[in-house]
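Throughout our pipeline, every protein is held as a single compact record rather than as scattered files. Such a record has a labelled line for the sequence and another for the backbone structure tokens. This encoding replaces a full spatial description with a residue-level series of whole-number codes. For reference, a complete record is included directly beneath this paragraph.
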Amino acid sequence: MSAYDKKPVFLIALALLVACTSCGHDDPDVPPTPTEPDKPDKPDNPDKPDNPDKPDEPDKPAAQIPINISATITRATEEAFESGDRIGLFVVNRNADGSAATLKPLGNHLDNMPYTYTTTWNAEKPVYWKDAQTHADFYMYYPYTQTVASVSAMPFGVSADQSSLGAYKSSDLIVGSTLDTAPSASPVNIAARHLMSQVEIVLKAGAGYSESSLADADVSVKMNNLATSATVDLASSTVSANGSVRSLTPYKDGAVYRAFVVPQTATGNNLITITVDGADIHSCTDALHSACCLLRLVVRRRRRQAWRRRPHTAIGQHRAVGADTCR
């Protein structure tokens, strides 16, 4: 075949190739190539999530401020708090205008929350201030009791037999308050004091006794005609004696007889009876309203001697039966 004869064949093949290539795009059985959609622009606020359907997360709450306390016994203290001691704490938030709200048995910010002393006071569970602005009033009492039905007339009683150290210590009632305190993580210091009268009796040898013979004698001391129960107002730290009167046996601590007594005016003429070798040799009467008083009683064989009271704190007028005014 000549070169002239081959040229038409080449042109025909080229035409067929072009036709097949162009008609392939119009084939309905071949799907079109998908295109990737444009990505949305990032939001102006970088803190918001990219997903607009996802709800915004709530703002984090302000840091809570823990309630920490300390307690200082300011008056007539025999000893400081010991490890293991438990108190009850009430915290009352102030009103919006800053005025004091009423202390209640329930419904305060904290209701009778137990705090235990080691080297510091620790709450039974974590507790916090209402917020960083609201002031509060703090009320505490010792020893702790699980149920406080009334804060204006909380019942309390001293033991009639305080001859053991445990019974003596459990007869001590300490209350305190600190008012209008601003929120802080620092300990709130609560000024506390004894509400029971703390009596100490010391016997001195008089005529017919030496110190050694008195020490060797069979001696007992009791207090008579005393109410041993009372009600306490925690807000005002006041005590009211109630109930019938009875005898009370103090705790003998070396040469000193100690007792916690409900503040009251004793009735009758036989407040303290000292028995030596079976014989009652001394009795007197007094009013017990001081936080702490020391009674020095002179023991004589033949006649009763006026006793003298040396108070740790000032109290009212007192008298001893058949003796001069106590001073």
Observations:
- The two ends are 158 Å apart (CA to CA).
